[in-house]
Design goal:
DNA polymerase, domain 1; DNA-binding; Integrase_recombinase_N; single chain; 54% helix; 2 domains
Length: 323
C-alpha cells in the first residue's frame, strides 16, 4: 500500500473523533512535511512511496533532516503525529510494528508562560492601537483593537479568533458572552463585560460603514480583512505583530510568542488576581488542569523572586550574623 493512501485511511478512521479543522490541518502538515523528506531519502516520488519504505532507518534520516529546519516544538509535534499514524498502520496490519520507537524525539519542554513584559504593557498596547498607532495602508483601528482585546481579555488562540462568527456573540446586553470552539472541538463560554461589548459593537458598526453592500449572515466570520473577506492565519499574525511594532512595544514581547503572548497575559493576570486553576481552565479551554496550574505556580515563583530581589532584602543579607 502506498503511504499517501494509508494517510487518507488514517484521517478517515479519525473522523468519528470530530477533530477540529485546525487540528486536522496541523496533522496533514506534519505528515506531508516528513513524507516529502522520506521520498527524497528513498529516492522516489511521494506518490511512489510505499509502506515498505517506512523503515526505522529511513524515518530516522527523514526526521534528522526535518529537525535541521524546524523548532524543537515542531519536531516533537511531528513525531507525535507520525507515531499516531504508524500506530494506526500497526492496527490495520499494514506494518508489523511501530518504527517510531527507534526515532529520537526532543524532550517535552516544560510549559513556561510567556506574557507581555512590563506591568503597564497591556494598557499601553490597547491605548495605542485604539488611537490608530498602527500605520496600515487602510487603517482600521476598530478591528485592530478588537483583535488585541480578544487576546488580552478573552484569552483566545489565533484559530479560535478566526473561527468566531457573528453568532458567537450571544446573550442580552450586559450579559453577553463569546461562544468559542477551541482545541478538540471543546466549547467554552467567555463572559463579555460592557467595555468589551462596546468594542465589539464599534467594530460591527465600522464593518457596516466599510462594506455597505455586503450581507453577512449569522454564520459569517466575525473578523475580516480590508477586503471584507475572513481574515487568514498569516494576516492575523501580521496584524498583531505590527500593532506591537507601531505601539513601540515590540521589545516587550517574549521571543516566539506574538499573538499567543496576549493569551498568556490574560491567564497570568487571572492567576495574579487570585483565580483558581479550575477557573483558568474553564476560561482558556485547557484540556488539562495541570496546564492551568502552571500559570499559578509561575506567578508564585515571580512574586518570590521579586521579594528576594528587593534592595531591603539584599541589605538584610549583608547584616552580620547575630548568633
Amino acid at each position: 500500500m502506498d503511504v499517501l493512501a494509508a494517510q487518507e485511511s488514517f484521517f478517515l478512521a479519525r473522523r468519528p473523533r470530530k477533530d477540529s479543522p485546525h487540528t486536522t490541518a496541523a496533522y496533514r502538515r506534519d505528515l506531508a512535511g516528513v513524507t516529502a523528506i522520506l521520498a527524497e531519502v528513498a529516492e522516489v516520488s511521494a506518490a511512489e512511496l510505499t509502506i515498505g519504505h517506512l523503515s526505522s532507518a529511513n524515518l530516522r534520516a527523514a526526521f534528522g533532516v526535518f529537525a535541521d529546519s524546524h523548532a524543537k516544538s515542531s519536531v516533537l509535534r511531528a513525531w507525535s503525529t507520525w507515531n499516531q499514524f504508524l500506530t494506526f498502520c500497526v492496527a490495520e496490519d499494514l506494518v508489523p510494528g511501530n518504527p517510531m520507537g527507534a526515532v529520537a524525539r526532543p524532550k517535552t519542554p516544560p510549559l513556561v508562560p510567556k506574557p507581555l513584559r512590563g506591568e503597564d504593557t497591556p494598557e499601553l498596547l490597547l491605548e495605542a492601537v485604539a488611537g490608530g498607532a498602527r500605520r496600515a495602508r487602510d487603517p482600521w483601528p476598530e478591528r485592530d483593537v478588537l483583535v488585541v482585546a480578544l487576546g488580552l481579555v478573552a484569552g483566545l488562540r489565533s484559530a479560535e479568533m478566526r473561527g468566531l462568527t457573528l453568532a458567537s456573540v450571544v446573550g442580552r446586553p450586559g450579559e453577553r458572552r463569546l461562544h468559542v470552539v477551541g482545541k478538540g472541538n471543546r466549547d467554552r463560554s467567555v463572559p463579555i463585560e460592557p467595555a468589551m461589548d462596546r468594542i465589539v459593537e464599534g467594530y460591527l458598526a465600522s464593518c457596516r460603514r466599510r462594506f455597505p453592500r455586503a450581507r453577512f449572515d449569522r454564520g459569517s466570520a466575525l473578523l475580516r480583512d480590508r477586503h471584507g473577506e475572513p481574515i487568514g492565519r498569516g494576516g492575523l499574525e501580521y496584524l498583531v505583530r505590527s500593532c506591537f511594532r507601531w505601539a513601540g512595544l515590540h521589545d516587550r514581547v517574549p521571543s516566539g510568542a506574538n499573538l499567543h503572548a496576549l493569551r498568556h497575559t490574560f491567564a497570568t493576570r487571572l492567576a495574579e488576581d487570585g483565580a483558581s486553576a479550575s477557573e483558568i481552565m474553564a476560561l482558556l479551554g485547557h484540556a488539562s488542569l495541570a496546564t492551568s496550574q502552571n500559570y499559578i505556580e509561575a506567578t508564585a515563583r515571580e512574586r518570590r523572586a521579586a521579594v528576594a530581589g528587593s534592595r531591603t532584602y539584599v541589605s538584610l543579607g549583608r547584616l552580620p550574623d547575630g548568633r
